[in-house]
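Quick start: read one record
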Amino acid sequence: MSHDWQTQDGALVRERQFADFAAALAYVNAVGALAEDRGHHPDILLHGWNRVRLSLVTHEAGGAVTDADHALAAAIDALEP
């Protein structure tokens, strides 16, 4: 898992900044497609026109971070060149 992921308020969290809104939106769409394929969905916040915040927890585990969250974080990291 990337060093960009941090534990905050009991969740795995990653904040990314992009060159523009289009790049941020493309990233959100790529993460969304990956999450849908895996059936495990992060909270996604697109804000400040070019920033994306991802938050991962497993709701079925009472909001705890599980192996499924770590696996999704690694898959999200693999989306990047």
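The radius of gyration is 12 Å.
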